[in-house]
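Quick start: what a row looks like.
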Amino acid sequence: DTAPATASVDDGSVFDVGSMDGTTGPGEDCVPPDVLVVLDRSQSMHRTPAGDTPPNDMAGYQSSRWWIAVDALEAFAGEFQDGLALGLEMFPEADPVGCVTLAQRIGGQSATGDGCNTAELLFPPGVGNAAAFDGALDPLTTLLCNQTPMATAIEQAGPVLAGTAGPDHEQFVILLTDGGESCNGDYTGMVQQLVASSGARVYVV
Protein backbone atom coordinates (compact mmCIF):
# COMPACT_ATOMS: atom_id res chain seq x y z
CA ASP A 1 0.00 0.00 0.00
CA THR A 2 1.09 3.55 -0.63
CA ALA A 3 0.51 6.56 1.59
CA PRO A 4 -2.01 9.21 0.46
CA ALA A 5 -0.62 11.98 -1.73
CA THR A 6 0.06 15.18 0.18
CA ALA A 7 0.93 18.75 -0.70
CA SER A 8 2.20 21.76 1.22
CA VAL A 9 0.67 25.22 1.31
CA ASP A 10 2.38 28.51 2.09
CA ASP A 11 2.00 28.27 5.86
CA GLY A 12 3.77 24.91 5.90
CA SER A 13 0.71 22.81 6.63
CA VAL A 14 0.22 19.57 4.74
CA PHE A 15 -3.08 18.27 3.44
CA ASP A 16 -4.24 15.10 1.76
CA VAL A 17 -5.07 15.54 -1.94
CA GLY A 18 -5.51 11.87 -2.73
CA SER A 19 -8.74 11.00 -0.94
CA MET A 20 -12.10 11.14 -2.71
CA ASP A 21 -13.96 8.91 -0.25
CA GLY A 22 -15.85 11.70 1.47
CA THR A 23 -13.95 11.41 4.75
CA THR A 24 -12.66 14.47 6.59
CA GLY A 25 -10.08 15.09 9.24
CA PRO A 26 -10.75 16.07 12.87
CA GLY A 27 -12.76 19.28 13.11
CA GLU A 28 -13.41 19.42 9.36
CA ASP A 29 -16.83 19.54 7.75
CA CYS A 30 -17.40 18.57 4.15
CA VAL A 31 -20.03 20.85 2.57
CA PRO A 32 -21.43 19.30 -0.60
CA PRO A 33 -21.43 21.85 -3.44
CA ASP A 34 -24.73 22.96 -4.92
CA VAL A 35 -25.40 21.84 -8.49
CA LEU A 36 -28.56 23.32 -10.01
CA VAL A 37 -29.50 21.65 -13.29
CA VAL A 38 -31.40 24.04 -15.61
CA LEU A 39 -33.08 21.81 -18.17
CA ASP A 40 -34.51 22.85 -21.53
CA ARG A 41 -37.92 21.24 -22.09
CA SER A 42 -38.64 23.03 -25.38
CA GLN A 43 -40.38 20.89 -27.97
CA SER A 44 -37.35 20.69 -30.27
CA MET A 45 -35.85 18.30 -27.73
CA HIS A 46 -37.87 15.59 -29.51
CA ARG A 47 -35.29 15.54 -32.29
CA THR A 48 -32.20 13.32 -32.42
CA PRO A 49 -28.77 14.86 -31.73
CA ALA A 50 -28.34 15.04 -35.52
CA GLY A 51 -31.51 17.15 -35.81
CA ASP A 52 -33.82 14.55 -37.31
CA THR A 53 -37.33 13.58 -36.18
CA PRO A 54 -37.06 9.97 -35.01
CA PRO A 55 -39.57 7.19 -35.73
CA ASN A 56 -42.71 7.22 -33.58
CA ASP A 57 -41.84 4.08 -31.63
CA MET A 58 -39.89 3.19 -28.51
CA ALA A 59 -36.55 3.00 -30.32
CA GLY A 60 -37.27 6.41 -31.79
CA TYR A 61 -38.17 7.89 -28.40
CA GLN A 62 -34.93 6.59 -26.93
CA SER A 63 -32.91 8.25 -29.70
CA SER A 64 -34.36 11.71 -28.96
CA ARG A 65 -32.41 14.49 -27.24
CA TRP A 66 -35.06 14.52 -24.53
CA TRP A 67 -34.74 10.83 -23.67
CA ILE A 68 -30.95 11.02 -23.73
CA ALA A 69 -30.95 14.09 -21.46
CA VAL A 70 -33.39 12.64 -18.93
CA ASP A 71 -31.60 9.29 -18.85
CA ALA A 72 -28.23 11.00 -18.30
CA LEU A 73 -29.55 13.26 -15.53
CA GLU A 74 -31.16 10.39 -13.64
CA ALA A 75 -27.94 8.36 -13.87
CA PHE A 76 -25.91 11.40 -12.78
CA ALA A 77 -28.15 12.00 -9.77
CA GLY A 78 -28.09 8.35 -8.79
CA GLU A 79 -24.31 8.22 -8.81
CA PHE A 80 -23.52 11.54 -7.14
CA GLN A 81 -26.49 12.28 -4.86
CA ASP A 82 -24.49 11.64 -1.69
CA GLY A 83 -21.65 14.02 -2.56
CA LEU A 84 -23.52 16.81 -4.34
CA ALA A 85 -26.54 18.91 -3.41
CA LEU A 86 -28.55 18.54 -6.61
CA GLY A 87 -31.51 20.66 -7.71
CA LEU A 88 -33.65 20.90 -10.84
CA GLU A 89 -35.20 23.81 -12.72
CA MET A 90 -36.92 23.41 -16.10
CA PHE A 91 -37.89 25.93 -18.73
CA PRO A 92 -40.37 26.96 -19.91
CA GLU A 93 -42.91 26.28 -17.18
CA ALA A 94 -45.27 23.44 -18.05
CA ASP A 95 -48.74 24.29 -19.34
CA PRO A 96 -50.94 21.15 -19.23
CA VAL A 97 -53.05 22.54 -22.08
CA GLY A 98 -50.30 23.93 -24.32
CA CYS A 99 -47.55 21.32 -23.86
CA VAL A 100 -47.20 17.86 -25.41
CA THR A 101 -45.60 14.52 -24.62
CA LEU A 102 -42.58 13.21 -26.50
CA ALA A 103 -44.76 10.74 -28.43
CA GLN A 104 -47.23 13.46 -29.37
CA ARG A 105 -44.47 15.74 -30.62
CA ILE A 106 -42.77 13.00 -32.64
CA GLY A 107 -46.21 12.14 -34.03
CA GLY A 108 -46.57 15.67 -35.40
CA GLN A 109 -48.47 17.52 -32.67
CA SER A 110 -46.95 20.89 -31.74
CA ALA A 111 -46.91 22.60 -28.38
CA THR A 112 -48.86 25.85 -28.32
CA GLY A 113 -49.08 28.89 -26.10
CA ASP A 114 -46.47 31.41 -25.09
CA GLY A 115 -43.84 29.83 -22.84
CA CYS A 116 -41.66 32.93 -22.90
CA ASN A 117 -40.39 34.41 -19.65
CA THR A 118 -41.25 31.37 -17.55
CA ALA A 119 -39.22 28.75 -15.74
CA GLU A 120 -40.15 26.22 -13.08
CA LEU A 121 -38.17 25.17 -10.01
CA LEU A 122 -38.94 21.52 -9.37
CA PHE A 123 -36.78 21.31 -6.23
CA PRO A 124 -33.82 23.25 -4.80
CA PRO A 125 -30.35 21.75 -4.36
CA GLY A 126 -30.20 19.07 -1.70
CA VAL A 127 -28.23 15.92 -0.88
CA GLY A 128 -29.94 12.63 -1.64
CA ASN A 129 -32.14 13.98 -4.44
CA ALA A 130 -31.91 11.06 -6.87
CA ALA A 131 -35.49 10.03 -6.10
CA ALA A 132 -36.61 13.61 -6.73
CA PHE A 133 -35.07 13.49 -10.21
CA ASP A 134 -36.75 10.16 -10.89
CA GLY A 135 -40.09 11.54 -9.71
CA ALA A 136 -39.87 14.79 -11.69
CA LEU A 137 -38.56 13.35 -14.95
CA ASP A 138 -40.10 10.68 -17.13
CA PRO A 139 -39.12 10.90 -20.80
CA LEU A 140 -42.52 9.61 -21.90
CA THR A 141 -44.80 11.72 -19.68
CA THR A 142 -42.88 14.88 -18.72
CA LEU A 143 -44.22 17.55 -21.05
CA LEU A 144 -42.37 19.42 -23.78
CA CYS A 145 -43.44 23.02 -24.25
CA ASN A 146 -43.20 26.00 -26.58
CA GLN A 147 -40.33 28.56 -26.61
CA THR A 148 -36.82 28.58 -25.10
CA PRO A 149 -36.60 31.33 -22.44
CA MET A 150 -33.00 30.68 -21.40
CA ALA A 151 -32.34 34.17 -20.07
CA THR A 152 -35.34 33.94 -17.74
CA ALA A 153 -34.27 30.49 -16.56
CA ILE A 154 -30.78 31.73 -15.68
CA GLU A 155 -32.22 34.83 -14.01
CA GLN A 156 -34.49 32.69 -11.84
CA ALA A 157 -31.57 30.47 -10.87
CA GLY A 158 -30.08 33.41 -8.94
CA PRO A 159 -32.58 33.43 -6.04
CA VAL A 160 -32.42 29.62 -5.86
CA LEU A 161 -28.66 29.70 -5.33
CA ALA A 162 -28.96 32.63 -2.91
CA GLY A 163 -31.28 30.51 -0.77
CA THR A 164 -28.61 27.86 -0.19
CA ALA A 165 -25.45 30.02 -0.31
CA GLY A 166 -22.96 29.94 2.55
CA PRO A 167 -19.30 30.45 3.42
CA ASP A 168 -16.93 28.10 1.60
CA HIS A 169 -19.91 26.66 -0.26
CA GLU A 170 -19.28 26.13 -3.96
CA GLN A 171 -22.19 26.50 -6.37
CA PHE A 172 -22.59 25.36 -9.95
CA VAL A 173 -25.23 25.65 -12.66
CA ILE A 174 -25.50 23.10 -15.47
CA LEU A 175 -27.56 24.50 -18.33
CA LEU A 176 -28.68 21.63 -20.56
CA THR A 177 -30.20 22.89 -23.80
CA ASP A 178 -30.48 22.09 -27.51
CA GLY A 179 -30.86 25.57 -28.89
CA GLY A 180 -30.73 29.33 -28.56
CA GLU A 181 -32.82 31.90 -26.76
CA SER A 182 -36.20 32.34 -28.48
CA CYS A 183 -37.75 35.04 -26.29
CA ASN A 184 -35.44 38.00 -27.02
CA GLY A 185 -33.71 37.61 -23.65
CA ASP A 186 -30.06 38.44 -23.05
CA TYR A 187 -28.89 34.96 -22.13
CA THR A 188 -25.18 35.86 -22.11
CA GLY A 189 -25.81 38.94 -19.98
CA MET A 190 -27.83 36.94 -17.48
CA VAL A 191 -25.05 34.36 -17.15
CA GLN A 192 -22.57 37.16 -16.50
CA GLN A 193 -24.86 38.67 -13.87
CA LEU A 194 -25.35 35.32 -12.17
CA VAL A 195 -21.62 34.65 -12.00
CA ALA A 196 -20.92 38.17 -10.68
CA SER A 197 -23.62 38.07 -8.02
CA SER A 198 -23.26 34.50 -6.77
CA GLY A 199 -19.77 33.35 -7.74
CA ALA A 200 -21.35 30.26 -9.24
CA ARG A 201 -19.72 28.54 -12.18
CA VAL A 202 -21.98 27.93 -15.17
CA TYR A 203 -21.52 25.01 -17.55
CA VAL A 204 -23.53 24.70 -20.77
CA VAL A 205 -24.25 21.29 -22.27
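That is the whole record. The radius of gyration is 20 Å. The longest strand covers residues 34-40.
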